[in-house]
Amino acid sequence: MRFLLFSLALASATPAAAGPPQLLLRVASFRNLDQVQKGGEVEISVTVPTQPLTYRQRAPKSFQSSAVVDLSILKADGTAAWQETVTLKPPVLSDTTISIKNPLSFLKRVNLPDGTYTLRGRIRDQYRSANGETTVEQPLVVAAPKGAAFSDLVFLAKPAVKTTGEGVFNRGGYLLTRSPAGFYGRGADNVFFYTELNQLPAGRPVRLHYHLAAADGSAADADAAPITPQEGRPTPVVGQLPLGPLPAGPFTLTVEARDAATKKVVATQSQTGERSLTDYAPAGAAVPR
């Protein structure tokens, strides 16, 4: 999973002092189940901090901001493989001096053939012309693993829930509430996550080990019960680890799979997140209207 993060430094609520709008993108790639057209299923998690947006008065004691997010995936030749525009309108505020303006987040899922792409995101503040636009880009590679491998790791705001439903928030038989920008705020006790294990021989059990580490050396470890890969499809992996020993700041989660018989490492995957002991985390991603 690739991660692009802009500083979340607080901006003044007044339009004159506000900085440019901010756009946070997380991308996770999974293999699709289509045996005819080989490719991947790419999930784009978008988080927009509303603090830097301009708030316009709509009525007495009624203020609201508005932003437009343009997303596009470009092929190597520069042509668009996919594009979409989403308009975001945060909740109405009665007072723009309120320091707590929750970020907005949403999720998009795109099927792509194997190849090399560029993800481009652009956000425009609807109520500001000067310094009211930000564009970010990051490389995106969709390719089949050459051997046993995990998909990208996805951080969750709460435990995955088994379900038979289908939708943008469902994967591998679970309902997944993603943690916006991989952020865990005040009151969060655990890191929850989801990934998939690909191209392992069916019926051959593997053991999973989870390792959570911070820059200062603080760490937490856990072992999960053995899992048995499924025939012809990815094997879902859900887990959690306590945040207790970790300080505020960035952390890295590593998931390791070992052959249950030989103890040999067959696959490993890592992802970075962020913990705060003072700020509350925004709600999980929601489908924009």
TrEMBL record:
Annotated keywords: Signal
Keyword Signal belongs to the record: yes
Highest rank taxon of the organism: Bacteria
Segments of this protein annotated with the region Disordered: 266-289
Presence of keyword Signal: yes
Signal peptide: 1-18
Name of the protein described by the UniProt record: Macroglobulin domain-containing protein
Organism whose genome encodes this protein: Hymenobacter ginkgonis
